[in-house]
Amino acid sequence: MRLRCAVLDDFQNTATGVADWSPVQDRVQVVRFTEHFATEDELAAALADFDIAVTLRERVRFPASLLDRLPRLKLLVASGMRNSVIDYAAAGRNGVTVCGTGSSPTPTVELTWALLLGLARGIVTENDALRSGGPWQSTVGADLHGARLGLLGLGRIGSRVAQVGLAFGMEVTAWSEHLTQERADEAGVRLAGSLEELLRDSDFVSVHLVLGERTRGLLGAPELALLKPTAYLINTSRAAIVDQDALLAALHEGRIAGAGVDVFDVEPLPADHPLRTAPRLLATPHLGYVSRGNYRTYYGEAVEDIEAYLAGSPVRLLG
Fold first, then answer.
1. Which of the residues 57, 160, 208, 238 is marked catalytic?
2. How far apart are CA 196 and CA 208, in angstroms?
3. Which CATH architecture has domain 3-103+291-310?
4. What is the enclosing helix (H) or strand (E) of 107?
5. What is the pLDDT of residues 60-105, one digit of tens each?
6. Of 42, 70, 77, 318, which is most buried with the most CB atoms under 10 A?
């Protein structure tokens, strides 16, 4: 009897096409779910008869309350090597092995620049007008060359975003609580003296911090009020780093020029969520990690994780 493997939130129907599942197909039956389960009850019912679950990034939460309801589940594979929505203690208590995969930061870097450039040059507004017979030129683009790019975080993603900014001829500054002068020098950027200084002086601010207790709600109403009215905010990291109500207020009141957002407090974003109709917002449905290359890595290494688990030697353990 084959084990059953659930592949969750395979929105684009790609899981079995981008990777070779043949090494486990004689021992594992793979079932793909292309729709998101909106509630924990729905998810618990769907996974009740599965031994293995594969989940992408942090699309699906696995709290203790869910894991306690899945006695058959023995292996959970999550893409990437960091996941904040899995209760590892509960997984261990229930005998669930948790494994990860590799992940490239490059797609998120590229999407960050897609959002920034789209905002700066009014791409969506001008494209919509051109295709609908609207006005010929209605926006005036913001110049990147000579503008200041402020980065919150200078890690794997932030440092690559910095290199592109420098190539555009931008002045790049960075800040995080533990960022050192040495690290800033290595990246060729200026170390901002404080968060307030970075926000006050930047023309574009891009968020690349890990979500934690110190960064949750880091940009609230007082911090957003420091931004210039001509400044743009980009967030491809985690929604909770930016106070969502404060961001909505800033957009509706025109206190910033615009925002580019790829992450949300609830995903998928409900149809009636106020961000769907917010002005001055360029938004994408958490596409930062969604690329052919990353999917090949995620699902290819998920197969490796399953194969190793079946052999009794699990790899890339998380927790």
1. 238
2. 16
3. 3-Layer(aba) Sandwich (3.40)
4. helix 106-120
5. 999 999 999 999 999 999 999 999 999 999 999 999 999 999 999 9
6. 77
